[in-house]
Amino acid sequence: MVVSPVLVACLGLSALLLVGDALLRRTVLSPLNGIPGPVLARFTSLVLKWHEFSARRTAYVHGLHRRYGPVVRIAPNEVSFASAAAVKEIYCSGGSGYDKTEFYDLFKVYGRRTMFTTLNKEDHARKKRILADRYANTNVVRQPSLDGIAERAANFVKKCSQSVGGSLDLYVRTYLHSYAFDCVTHHLFHPYGTDSLQTEQDEAIMREVTFDDSLQNRLVGYYSPTLHKVLGKLLYWLAKPRQTPLADNFVLGTCSKTDAAPFTLLDRMQGPSSDLDQLDVAAECLDHMVAGIDTTGDALCFLMWELSQPRSLSHQARLRAELLANPGAAFDRLPFLDAVVLEGLRCFPPIPMSLPRYVPRGGRAIGSYAVPEGTVVSCQAYSVHRIDQAVFPKPDVFYPDRWLHPDGDAERKRLFFAFASGGRGCVGKHLALAEMKILLRAVYTSFTTLPDPAMTAESMDMSDQLISSRPLGQACLLAFSPAASQPLSTD
Ligand code: HEM
């Protein structure tokens, strides 16, 4: 058959017009064009993805905010915001804000959607009604719950005592992750919580869920399932996916117990108000267990590192003075301790990166921009905590006192995004704060800390993981010395 050249030309022209039309709509005619940002971001998301694959997305997006301001178009269909108004609209409007994107599919457990991975607000609200009660502050501060945390803080302090004269690696030996793991399993499963600070068997479970080098592997799977299939073996060797047989065994086994303490999540999920089947219960527990380890562990790690720096020894001394002067006070009635923890989470949010959401049907106004439905919008804590220098002057300086001034308190709280905001913000927030304060009190009442000379500032730079960050050098060596019962001199 002879194909007419005219027909070929017509087909070619039509294809060109179609592609051109799509390109025009996406670029020149896109309603997002009024939003500042690099020109390349109008045409392609490749630059953003490159930074994501290099574990530097948070720093890249922050650099764009510094250059373009609190609203930046970071890809053809993606906009990053860093303002209180945007946090309120994206994460709090209608209670729990906009729906999550499919990015959260990466975190499904046993093929099930947990509270964290549920995308739409109706399903999420149903799950939250069952679970939230156990994370309310009134439940966290019950004596059996606090006793378990205090016992684990005492175990951590034993490690500090044993290290005197040398250094303790808070990261590689993951003592802080062990502490967070033992605390969260206490809250989920008591009396079946772990003791990874003292037993190797439990430490092995913690190690399985805390070390994950599969960022690139999982990102390829997310962005291109076909490429992921083609590159399967190569990717496996370059960035091994995490396997967690010990953790699965522990969680599935523990979830079959029926006599967990009344303050635990397991008790709640097995109670009459729950309609979750056994696999849902296990998936939820594994999810919360993992959510509570790296976050709280790394928040403490970065904060103790900062408190140990010569520039921050005056804060360390002041913290110790407050602790020594108030030995009988409740952990949540110590204003300077509270300020230190808030400032640590502001400077080093363990989840510093964008939390992506879809603009709902009909589009929305975010700040002064009309954003069409389906656009991916997000805020990232690292930038929200730094961009508005009227609220956070000298944002890169660790300065706990900023939280003690009554002036500007409401504005600071509106911009505090370490636990996100609204109905989908961190359900474990009160537990995490209790763990952090109880541990810091136990440590800094008895010890002074200094950085080990082998450490460098660069090794403590934040390195992005899929949804948290860790120290770039994956080590945090601190020297612990017994504190005199007198406050530390900072001369
Ligand atoms: C300092 C420690 C912690 C920080 C900074 C933190 C931060 C966050 C953030 C930013 C989110 C929102 C994530 C998103 O929207 O993608 C979140 C959600 C969540 N966190 Fe935490 N978290 C911490 C500790 C914990 C602990 C100890 C637990 C549990 C025991 C926990 C359980 C959860 C769960 C289940 C969600 C999902 C909530 C929902 O979708 O309704 N977190 N956390």
Automatic annotation (TrEMBL):
An example Pfam family from this entry, by short name, is p450
Q: Which cofactors are required for activity?
A: heme
Single GO term (MF): iron ion binding
List, alphabetically, the InterPro entries matched: Cyt_P450, Cyt_P450_E_grp-I, Cyt_P450_sf, Cytochrome_P450_monoxygenase
Q: Does the keyword Heme apply?
A: yes
Which keywords does UniProt give here? Heme, Iron, Metal-binding
Coiled-coil zones = none
Q: Which Gene3D superfamilies match?
A: Cytochrome P450
Instruction: List residues binding heme.
Output: 426
Q: PANTHER family in the record, alphabetically?
A: CYTOCHROME P450 (PTHR24305), P450, PUTATIVE (EUROFUNG)-RELATED (PTHR24305:SF164)
Q: What is this protein called?
A: Cytochrome P450
Q: Which organism is it from?
A: Lasiosphaeria ovina
